[in-house]
Fold:
Amino acid sequence: MVATFDVKERLRQRFAADVLHADRAGGMESITVKKDRIVEILGFLRSEPDLAFDFLSDLGGADGMRLDWPQWRDRFQVVYHLRSMKHGRRLRIKASVPESDCRMPSVTGLWKSANWMEREVFDLFGVHFDGHPNLKRILCHHKFVGHALRKDYDIHQGQWLDETESMMDEIGEYGENPDDGGFSELVPVNIGPAHPATHGTLRLFAKLDGETVVRVSPEIGYLHRGFEKHSESGSWTMVIPYTDRLNYCSAMLNNVAWCHGVEKMLGIEVPERTQYIRVIVSELSRIIDHAVCVAAMLVDLGALTNFWYLFNLRERIYSILEELCGARLTSTYVRIGGLAYDLNEGFIDQVRAILRDIPKNVGDVIALIKKNRIFLDRTVGVGAVSKELALSYSWTGPCLRASGVAFDLRKSDPYLGYENFDFEIPTYEDGDVYSRAMIRFDEIVQSMRIIEQALDRLPSGPIFSEDKRVHLPDKDKVYGSIEGLMNHFVLVYDGIKVPKGEGYHPIEAANGELGFYTISDGSGRPYRVRCRPPCFTIYSGYSEIAAGSMIADAVPILSSFNIIAGELDR
Amino acid sequence: MTYTIVNHVLDYFELEQGGLWSLIGAIAVWAAPITGFVAIVGLVSIWLERKISAHIQCRLGPMEVGPHGLLQTLADGIKLLGKEDLVPKNADRALFALAPMMVFAATFVSFACIPFSEKAIIADLDIGIFFIAAVGSLEAIGVVMAGWSSNNKWSLFGAVRAATQVVSYEIPLSLALLAGVLCAGSMSLVDISQAQGGWIWSWFIFRNPFMWIMFLIYFIASLAECQRAPFDLPEAESELVSGFHTEYSGMRFAIFFLAEYGKMYVVSAVGVVLFFGGWLSGIPAIDGIGGITGNLIGAGVMITKSFLLVCVQMWIRWTLPRIRLDQVMDLCLKYLLPISLVCLMLIAVWQGLMPTFDEFGIAMIAAMALGFMQMRRIYRKAIEASKTRLSLPTMKV
Amino acid sequence: MNWEAVVFWAMATLVLVPAFAIVFSRNIVHMAFWLLGTLMGVSGLYLLLGADFLGMTQIFVYIGGINVLLLFGIMLTRSEPVYVRRLAKRPKLAPGLIIGAFTAFTLVSALLGAGWRNVPGEPTETAGILGAFLLSEYILPFEIISVLLLVVLIGAAYIARRGSREGAE
Structure:
């Protein structure tokens, strides 16, 4: 890879004094820089045509307090994952932030999505971003004391917090003193956290002029349960059940994402059969997720019947998954290095049967809405998002593709053998609610194609990697040989020992790019787990997109984003 | 025979001038059967709504209480009766309590003028249809009252939406009512029904092509008047939580509910009288029976027809998404209003120039049946197309 | 006391009590709802006099239309309950008395000069007669009023549109 070599050299040429360290980890160039000129560095990487790292994939933080790596000079690092849409390359830039001077410039001027992600770093690590328009806590309560993801914050240290944030600082002043004699006095309203339109627990604070939403600001974190902190307290395997609760509409995909990332750090390949089964359950989950999203959106439009048609489908797929892994919602099916169980008897027939029935269920819904004048009036052109805006907000997944960017990790960075499947990436041009709804139907069709091919080609063989670091030995070996017994003992007591290093290996989840940025110190416990939830960046664009629409439009715009609170708030 | 409200009261109960107690008695005698009927209409409609929605949505609906859940609504009503009477803090208590009564009264009074058969009508007023339209508009006041007094912004939004919608749709609704009045030459619902005697093609809807359009306008406007989907904006649950009755619970909520279903029956019954021959079955032999038997058959026909229209309202509710407020206004002011004005004029011209003859009615029925079959064919095709688009070329569907 | 008298006094109370309440209430929304009572009472009086059509028109137009629009206007412009402020600390007695006396004089003289008479006979159908009159004898006033209303409608739409266009710029 000559190109990645170039990045390092180019940066050294231009910012010689600022580049501290460069290495490769997990197939990605990783460059540590000084914090003060981060805006210039990222701007340079973004604007140079041969680099063109124009997409801020993820922005997270890490606390190196208990890490004795030589390249980790200061306590904190702010980690930027960039992607070049043009060249399809990824790059990790890490800004080193000392504890004594815990502030750095904000990159909100380059990417709009940096707004929320920097707020999150500020909230959880206490790094101040100069020039940030609205630097305040985002996931934790506004009265929370301390920074939860710092390593010196004890996981058991609870705080009693019960005061609702007024949100007046974000939109309070707006429209209070109009010049026209008070006739357009704006009405402040809370939409949520307990409102039928805010599936999960979202809170929107809006200022209305009649029926028009003049300004709206979301407050998130109602479902924040410290996924990352929890993950850092147990072994690598113990994270799997937590991932179920991220996007609870498609738990399988989260399992796959986590295990895939850890396997990449371990450098192991799972057997082919496992890959195929993972593909099948992933795509089934994707179908569920898309069905749920469109169903909820149609409910918000007042078309309740479609909800049932789509939920019938969902329930049937859940029944299949239940027979497979014992749980409907929280599957915990995938393991690092393999799967919990092989396919049950009859699984393939059940899946084939449901593939036959999907056209009936989904077709009814499409027939009800596709040429329905009311549906078209309510969705076409509503909440339109341009390609540029979507990319600036780091959108991924169906929402981005509805805006006309054919970006799908299954095609662009294939994993689990997706390159062997014949499928297309549907795109729409308008980026409105209609496109975001219809693209999900189209993706359901593509998922069906993938499942069908996977079923046809499903190989037989083992479902678990033979690698001793992850594979629990068979019982006869545990009882019959000392190596087996020791292997079992070490795996159970110490957990999987992931080699020192860091990795970010995203997959295409139902909502978009879902990746886990993990740092391992080699101890058998993840040192740092950062989840890049797709709907976090999508939701950060909501206030800009929904402002100026009517209440009746703001609600379907919200549901067309498919915001899942479990994933959003972690 | 002409009646006004005053001498109707006198005649009906053979009141003497000055009999105060007989007036009170008369009110009681009037009110009791209507109350009973409204309650039964409410119970049956709610059960129907649950069953229809359930079967449309591949569900069963209530099955536990009574055969096929028939008594479920009753059980729910008893539960609602037993609930605590909650009034939100800072609510306008008096108006909060008055609002459900206001809404219910508006529906309740309309029943006085609805004929069940030739004789089974409480008050056959000269201005029957105008009376129903007028008291129907009182409901808007009740809704506004509920929304305002709840001291809840969502309720207020619901109330404002309701006021906008009801006031606007009253115009096309009234024009559609006028079409029926124009054809019959009377505002009495009994006269209007009787003007449609004879075979089924003498019903007003088959009288001329514009009556059919007028019926569609009437039906759309009546959906809006009842605040039923797709015009359920005042209580749009995904936007306004549940609109003007967000803060209502217990029996007050039940009364709103009852009023909604009562109103659905009222608009359907008026629609039946205006366009579908009222209690007339469309077969002269049956309609000519007369006497108690004839009246009973008439009442059965009338109630069946009305409930059929109520079912169509429900069917539409569970099929269509909700319209946005500005689109509701567009539909009313840009489409329904001009179309209904033009139709009214054309109906007047037709009524003045064309003789009424049976063959035309038969032709209308045939044309409608053909049109319906054509629409059905197009719709089938659309469904098939959307299913083939979804299925895979390699798959054996 | 015969029942007509009972109904009359009931309706008269329904007209007068809300009327006073409107004057003395300070909450604009309450005023609008009190107005409902007055309009209902007037409608009841019309019905009592046998003027069915007029009574129903009263309900249809004044309650269903105008009163709703009144409330609508209040609620659209204000989200909080609105209270009327007293403009002056002490009510100005002399101008009030003069205006009151003038109004009273006008009303009383109109009442006395009306030439009340008892019309015997049954109340009859009124809608048809009214319609016939409106389209024959009184066609000119009827048309003039409708043209006037049209002008008002166009004017209101023009003012509203101009306002919104300026707001947009």
Observations:
- Residues 1-86 of chain C form a domain with the Four Helix Bundle (Hemerythrin (Met), subunit A) fold (CATH 1.20.120.1200).
- The mean pLDDT of chain C is 79.
- The interface with chain B takes residues 1-4, 6-7, 29-30, 33, 36, 47-48, 50, 52-53, 56-57, 59-60, 63-65, 67-69, 71-72, 75-76, 79, 81, 122-127 of chain C (CB under 8 Å).
